[in-house]
């Protein structure tokens, strides 16, 4: 049985993003988006318990897993920061372990649209990074905050579950708070953050009405707020935020959101022709026209507004996919598979 250190070291050497430890299966890791066996020896139930106890670190933490069936944590193994999720399946612990980058990458190294590189220069409003699990949202946000850290004398407060990337303060003062350890919830931590004299606030996930409502208030009162949502497009992100609220509040929320939302980046990671993965990103820069669409509830028209906003840096996901195919980075059939409007991508590649 390999130790966690040994598994992380092998995953790191082979360029894997995630490790999965599941009873009756060999340890697996995700390389270029595909799950592969790390060894051939299946794990026993006892092996899984040993791994879970090792990753939980303390008896109270392991007891929390036993009580609730889940435990989130983050730690460093083989000199690599990892996000850890322990969960129970069929009475036995399973582990999903995400390898985070050794260092926070430079914002201009991620392959984001040029307009995204200007977002850290903003002083107030809401900036959302959306996409499915594993699409690189955390990395993009970390790169944005670190850009601010190296360029602005300001106070950054993050609310994370768990803390993933560790920032080294440069020009900025930084407080990183972990939900469940440093504060009870995103909502309570966010409310408290408004009394902590922040300039920039990161919300790991905008999950509920109270968190979203407080985030909008923070943006309205002059703070720069970064947050994530699990949505596949900018228009879906707007709808998701509005639909969290009761019907009687939705008109008011649309009005407030239209005034404070600055940009939405939606991400996907695609397999490259040459191996590895490459980022495809939709970029919505909120214009007056888009503010009107949000205010009036015409979110289905947002995609068209983004498509015609290239002059200020906007691009739809399908436009991003076409660029990747034309640049020789992604095969046409792969781009079509990830497209929103498949006929558009087929026609323009």
What is the element layout, followed by pairings?
Elements lengths: L3 H10 L2 E6 L6 E4 L2 E4 L7 H12 L2 H10 L1 E8 L2 E10 L2 E8 L25 E7 L5 H15 L3 E6 L12 E6 L7 H8 L6 E4 L5 H12 L3 E6 L4 H10 L3 H14 E11 L5 E9 L2 H8 L6 H6 L9 H10 L5 H7 L3 H7 L1
Parallel strand pairs: 7-11, 7-12, 8-9, 8-10, 10-11
Antiparallel strand pairs: 1-2, 1-6, 2-3, 4-5, 5-6, 12-13
Helix pairs in contact: 5-6, 6-8, 8-9, 11-12, 11-13, 12-13
Note down, in words, how this protein is organized:
With 349 residues, this protein is of the alpha/beta class. The protein folds into two domains: 4-99, Beta-Lactamase (2-Layer Sandwich); 107-315, 3-Layer(aba) Sandwich (Rossmann fold). The protein is built from 13 helices and 13 strands. Strands 9-8-10-11-7-12-13 form a seven-stranded mixed beta sheet, sandwiched between helices. A six-stranded antiparallel beta sheet has the order 3-2-1-6-5-4. β5 and β6 (92-99) form a beta hairpin. α11 (317-326) packs parallel to α13 and α12 runs antiparallel to α13 (342-348). It is globular.
Question: pLDDT under 50 segments (min length 5)?
Answer: none
C-alpha-based Rg, rounded? 21 Å
CATH class of the largest domain: Alpha Beta
> What fraction of residues sit in β-strands?
25-35%
Order of helices and strands: HEEEHHEEEEHEEHEHEHHEEHHHHH
Fourth-level CATH superfamily of the largest domain: P-loop containing nucleotide triphosphate hydrolases
Structural class designation: alpha/beta
- The amount of helix comes to 25-40%
Number of contiguous helices: 13
Q: Name the strands of the widest sheet in spatial order.
A: 9-8-10-11-7-12-13
Number of strands: 13
Largest sheet: 7 strands, mixed
Number of domain units: 2
* Form type: globular
Look up the CATH topology of the largest domain.
Rossmann fold
Q: Supply the CATH architecture of the largest domain.
A: 3-Layer(aba) Sandwich
């Amino acid at each position: 049985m390999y130790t966690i250190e040994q598994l992380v070291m092998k995953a790191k050497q082979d360029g894997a993003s995630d490790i999965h430890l599941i009873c009756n299966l060999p340890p697996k890791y995700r390389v270029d988006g595909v799950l592969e066996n790390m060894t051939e020896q299946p794990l026993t139930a006892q092996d899984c318990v040993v791994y879970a106890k090792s990753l939980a670190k303390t008896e109270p933490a392991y007891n929390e897993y036993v009580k609730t069936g889940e435990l989130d944590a983050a730690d460093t193994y083989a000199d690599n920061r990892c996000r850890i999720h322990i969960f129970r399946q069929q009475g036995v612990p399973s582990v999903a372990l995400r390898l985070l980058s050794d260092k926070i990458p430079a914002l201009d190294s991620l392959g984001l649209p040029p307009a995204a590189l200007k977002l850290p220069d903003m002083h107030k409003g809401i900036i959302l990074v959306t996409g499915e699990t594993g699409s690189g949202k955390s990395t993009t946000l970390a790169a944005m905050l670190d850009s601010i850290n190296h360029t602005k004398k300001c106070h950054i407060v993050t609310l994370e579950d768990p803390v993933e990337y560790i920032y080294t303060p440069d020009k900025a003062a930084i407080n990183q708070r972990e939900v469940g350890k440093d504060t009870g919830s995103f909502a309570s931590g966010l409310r408290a953050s408004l009394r902590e004299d922040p300039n920039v606030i990161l919300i790991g996930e905008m999950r509920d009405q109270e968190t979203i409502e407080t985030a909008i208030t923070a943006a309205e009162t002059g703070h720069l707020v970064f947050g994530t949502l699990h949505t596949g497009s900018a228009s879906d992100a707007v709808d998701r935020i509005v639909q969290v609220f009761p019907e009687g509040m939705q008109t008011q929320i649309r009005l407030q959101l239209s005034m404070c939302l600055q940009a939405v980046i939606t991400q996907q990671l695609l397999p490259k022709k040459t191996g590895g993965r490459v980022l495809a990103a939709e970029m919505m820069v909120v214009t007056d026209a888009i503010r009107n669409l949000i205010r009036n509830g015409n979110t289905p028209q947002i995609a068209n507004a983004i498509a015609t906003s290239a002059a200020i840096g906007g691009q739809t996901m399908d436009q991003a996919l076409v660029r990747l195919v034309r640049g020789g980075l992604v095969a046409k059939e792969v781009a079509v598979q990830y497209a929103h409007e498949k006929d558009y991508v087929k026609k323009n590649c």
